[in-house]
Design goal:
CATH architecture of the largest domain: 2-Layer Sandwich
CATH class of the largest domain: Alpha Beta
Strand order of the largest sheet: 3-2-1-4-5-6
Number of domains: 2
Largest sheet: 6 strands, mixed
Shape: elongated
Distance between the termini: 56 Å
Structural class: alpha/beta
Number of strands: 6
Length: 285
């Protein structure tokens, strides 16, 4: 019983995991849960994976089947209503693909974001003009209005770095990112200045992988790791291709990416050299 919607919110993911735990604790199979709703087992599986929205009536019936006390069930249903509310990014649904809306939700709830970027400055650290130049290239047939909407979304995402309880951002970028000319020299100098400013934030760590470091294990492409303070949520890896994104949360996958992040972090230039490297590259522009 799939329904048209944007990607799930973090709240829906967490509640889906809690429904799974409640079902297992009650000793119910997928068939038992499906019978309580008069649906097939696929619907229950998709609810637990947040692949469909959480309908309050369905959730209420499941909680009753699992023997959840009335007060606890009422609290759960309040959380369902809250989780089903569209995130702030819903305003940009005209330019935000469904597969990326989950990324924005994860980004907003993460306590730690670790990233490797070989191609361009990470979106959370881009200036408006740098972002505009990239988006013009990525969407050559888009109108100026559409590009403006995409830029506005990216700028609004950046506000999380200066909020209270801001996530820790630790990014490793390739030297080539800084030497690849995006727009004019003035634009690139402004972008480097923005990176210098960002490194002064207590929650931002930026490292540069110099050409001289040679090959390293992260060279297959950009990716990010999200970590949360929410107990139910495991680390989640995000990778992106030309036509969509992939989210990985199985432990063997996340451990493999985490090991790569640790290795490239050790291989990249030390954090205390970052500002000097940025300044040297800026002078060459």
């Amino acid at each position: 019983m799939a329904e048209a919607r944007s990607g799930p919110t973090v709240g829906q993911i967490v509640l889906g995991l809690r429904l799974r735990d409640l079902r297992e604790r009650a000793g119910c199979s997928f068939a038992d849960a499906a019978q309580a709703l008069s649906v097939n087992t696929t619907t229950v599986r998709r609810m637990e994976k947040a692949e469909v929205g959480l309908k309050p009536l369905y959730v209420k019936a499941l909680l009753e089947r699992y023997g959840v006390p009335r007060a606890e069930a009422d609290s759960f249903l309040l959380l369902v209503n809250e989780a089903n509310r569209p995130g702030w990014w819903h305003r940009y649904r005209d330019v935000l693909p469904d597969w990326f809306s989950l990324h924005v939700s994860l980004e907003g709830e993460a306590s730690l974001i670790r990233a490797y970027e070989p191609h361009c400055v990470p979106g959370l650290l881009q200036t408006e003009e740098y972002a505009r130049a990239l988006l013009r290239t990525g969407f050559p047939n888009a109108s100026q209005e559409e590009i403006g909407r995409r830029v506005a979304l990216r700028m609004e995402r950046q506000e999380l770095l200066s909020r209270s309880r801001a996530p820790l951002l630790w990014a490793v970028i390739e030297e080539g990112v800084l030497r690849r000319r995006v727009g004019s020299p003035d634009l690139m100098r402004a972008q480097i200045d923005r990176l210098v400013e960002a490194t002064a934030l207590p929650n931002v760590t930026l490292q540069i992988m110099p050409f001289s470091a040679g090959p390293h294990p992260g060279m297959f492409g950009p990716f990010q790791l999200f970590r949360f303070e929410i107990p139910e949520l495991p680390d989640i890896i995000y990778t992106e291709s030309l036509t969509g994104g992939v989210y990985l949360d199985e432990r063997p996958d996340t451990v493999a990416f985490l090991e790569v992040l640790d290795r490239i972090g050790a291989q990249a230039a030390p954090v205390h050299d970052t500002e000097a490297l940025l300044g040297a590259i800026r002078k060459e522009l």
